[in-house]
Design brief:
Helix content of chain B: 55-70%
Strand content of chain A: under 5%
Number of domains of chain B: 1
Structural class of chain A: mainly alpha
Largest interface: A-B, 43 and 57 residues
Number of strands of chain A: 0
Strand order of the largest sheet of chain B: 1-2
Helix content of chain A: over 70%
Oligomer: heterodimer
Chain lengths: ~170, ~250
């Protein structure tokens, strides 16, 4: 390997004549960089990150609140449903009881009416039977008078009647 | 860097030379050099990421804003986790170091670029700045109790002076290892890449082999560039933790 003659024969890193120049420019660079970063870039990025973290935690808190609200709403819904169901059951019960009462009343009324009518009917039947018995007695008296007349016996009408009535009473007894 | 004077001439270290940008040979204190150019580009790149990227301030970030925020959160969390909550006031300082090293490393990987962090002058200043900051912070926060860092209470009494000596040496070696690790990693990778690239020019048809090697090496260097920036930053946080909480 052929080496060049002169200063660059060794490592340029150890050429101390360039050190002041490098150190000066390094100092300038670092100071400029530090100012740019600490004055402009870092506060800006820091605030953006903080703002984002704030937004995210706010959103999470809001989501938490909404979740709780949703749970409450669900509980309220279920409670309302339960209340409505029990109210409906109560209404049904009430209606059933009312209907039963109405029905009982109607049945009692109908029974009473039926009893009244059958009593009236029995009374009529009894009246009819009585009148029919009276008619039979009349017919029997007339028939007995006629029969006695046909046999040519002149009998007392009242005696014949009394005899017939007596026979009728015996027949009925 | 191919053939010259009949021999294979590969000068892998030429890429590290500090040269004036606008003619002349002398590198004075205020000369505008390739160092100036690439450090300025580092500032531009960092500004593009952190300032232009976060310009939207959107609640739902764009891609570039997301990258800026990820970088911010990554370093913030590192400072908080490694150095403690009270180290957060050093966060702007630490992220400045991180972004400078990261972008200097990454920009150095562009072909024909100049890697500012491959120079011990640069990394030594960075490491010394950390060392001085940490030492001053240690004494300001803890007073003389900061010296307890070197006095291991949990060790047997007889061992303590020995341990104190070791701790003291290791404390002062920190800036050396801190700076040489970074400069060495940057320099070695770039030099090796240059050597392989030189072979590619000399080997004719077989150039494929060194090109593949350079490709693989480049991927590795990309990793190294990021890891070294990370290591530099996390070590800064570790040192800061020692300064803020010197008890072991």
């Amino acid at each position: 390997m052929a080496e060049d003659t002169g200063t660059s024969a060794g490592m340029p890193q150890l050429d101390f004549s360039t050190f002041p120049n490098q150190i000066l420019w390094l100092a300038v660079t670092l100071i400029v960089l530090y100012l740019i970063l600490s004055r402009v870039a870092l506060p800006r990025i820091g605030s953006v990150l903080a703002e984002r973290a704030g937004t995210i935690s706010n959103d999470i808190a809001a989501a938490e609140t909404y979740k709780v609200q949703a749970a409450e709403a669900e509980a309220a819904y279920h409670k309302a449903l339960e209340d409505a169901r029990s109210a409906a059951a109560k209404v049904v019960q009430q209606a059933r009881a009312d209907i039963q009462a109405d029905l009982d009343a109607a049945i009692a009324k109908a029974d009473a009416e039926i009893a009244a009518r059958s009593a009236e009917s029995e009374k009529k039947i009894a009246a009819i039977r009585e009148s029919a018995d009276a008619a039979v007695a009349d017919v029997a008296r007339d028939a007995a008078r006629e029969i006695v007349a046909v046999f040519g016996v002149i009998a007392e009408a009242a005696a014949v009647d009394a005899a017939v009535d007596q026979r009728l009473k015996q027949g009925a007894a | 860097m191919a053939e010259a004077n009949g021999g294979l001439v590969i000068r892998p270290m030429d890429q590290f030379e500090v040269r004036p940008l606008f003619g002349g040979d002398m590198v004075g204190l205020f000369t505008i050099t390739n160092v100036t150019l690439w450090m300025a580009l580092t500032v531009v790149a960092v500004s593009l990421l952190m300032v232009v990227g976060s310009r939207g301030r959107a609640l739902v970030p764009t891609r570039s804003q997301s990258m800026a925020e990820l970088t911010y959160s990554f370093i913030y969390k590192m400072v908080e986790d490694v150095a403690g909550r009270d180290a957060v006031r050093f966060f702007p300082y630490i992220i400045t170091l991180f972004l400078f090293v990261l972008f200097a490393n990454l920009l150095g990987l562009i072909p024909f670029a100049f890697t500012t962090t491959s120079h011990i002058a640069v990394t030594a200043v960075l490491a010394l700045a950390v060392f001085i900051t940490v030492t001053i912070t240690g004494f300001v926060v803890n007073g003389a109790a900061f010296l307890k860092l070197f006095w291991v209470d949990s060790a047997p009494l007889a061992l303590r002076p020995v341990l104190a000596l070791i701790e003291l040496v290791s404390y002062f070696v920190r800036p050396v290892s801190h700076s040489i690790r970074l400069a060495g990693a940057m320099m070695a990778g770039h030099a090796v890449a240059k050597v392989f690239a030189g072979f590619a020019g000399a080997l004719g048809v077989a150039f494929v082999i060194p090109v593949l090697a350079v490709t693989a090496l480049y991927a590795l260097e990309l990793l190294v560039a990021v890891i070294q920036a990370y290591v530099f930053t996390i070590l800064t946080c570790v040192y800061l933790k020692d300064a803020l909480h010197p008890s072991h």
